[in-house]
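Standup notes
- HV: blocked on the assembly model, inputs below
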Amino acid sequence: MRRLLFLLTLWLTANMVSGQSEETVFVWEASTAVNYKLGKSWSFNTSLATRTIWLNEQTTQGDDFRGELNFGEINQFATYRINPRLKASIGYKYRIVEPTEGRNQHEHRVTQQVAWLHRPEGVRMASRGRLEQRIRNGRLTHRFRYRFSVDFPLSGQTLDAGEFYMLASNEILYESTRFNRNAWGNRFSAGVGYLFGLVTKLQFTAAYRSDNINLWTLNRLFVETSLFINL
Amino acid sequence: MLMIKSWIYCCLLTLPPILGLSQNLKQEVEKRIKAEEMPAIALEILATHLSQASKIRYYKETDIGHQSFECKFILDRLWYSVEFDENGAIEDVEIKMDFEQIPQAALDKIRYSLSAYDRYRIRRTQRQYTLAFLSSDDLLTMVIKGADELELRYEIVLSVKKDGSWTTYEMLFDQSGLLIEKKEVVDRQTDNILYQ
């Protein structure tokens, strides 16, 4: 499984360059999240994230390689541990879309989710179900998401400081809104992470996203870098 | 100037936990190694038993002030874990089992101990054989042969609920079901599963 995941990550990364449109070189999402506990049952997660689209436009003066900020966002989650394998969360996201283009779109998103661990040790397997209400420029969209994920340490059965881990996930997404036809989406991602010390993780993933599968399919490849700090 | 100094002190105080330098948590570190990195005596002891085994893995474990080596394998459909000290002598042999397979008298006693908690969920159970009057090599041979006269203990990893919150422990019970040792287990963080 480890070899398969490694090859999948390589394949996705290799497609970053060739799979995008002529102008887009790659889409980069970067996030930093801080996780902190309140007692034994409650934990909170605050994160900041940006998406930058890197373009290479061919002009009369030659190649123009530049990054355009697509959005910036802040997320806040509160999570309650129902039992060792089951956690319920509520969250809020504020996103400002294309802030540098002068046509700011403001997005508010409320999330309710349940996540449960099928296997808590070694090769860890987990499911996550999410309900989202997304309001962008006054328009409400309901989103229903289910994700299955696997992660495991690359050295031993436990993830210790100074060790790498691999992860893969697939998420199915259904969007329902009054303003458009309902749409399906799928997101597959694979990657690698590294645990610094006891509290800090850095994760690199390559993701293949297919949106509006039943309407006009939009396939995109993403590079995602995430920093997790557990206080 | 005072503000700058305060900011520097604040950074110095908050950096160690962020970088994971805090020494408050006792954690066993397990690292996968190659067979060649195992003590030679340990490999000699294992050699006669591993010909029929599958999924053979070697690990080095480091705890504060203690270092050991471990070999995990499957033999006759049983999951073995054999722990060696730095010199290659066997410290203990563990075999995975179902919680319900514990003999009834010991099981009743363990359940009675666990009734102190509001709820509990068993994650993993192993029977553990340690050296009593046997030599290192004899112990593994006798465990694999299934000798009944060996004294054993039960190592159980479980989550317990007390006062509304859950904690995971590794508990060690003797053959009669009496609790000998209890250590809190730090679970892997789930932030990448929950939020990303």
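- HV (later): unblocked. DSSP finds one helix and eleven strands in chain A. The helical segments of chain A are 2-18.
- Next: hand off to the docking folks.
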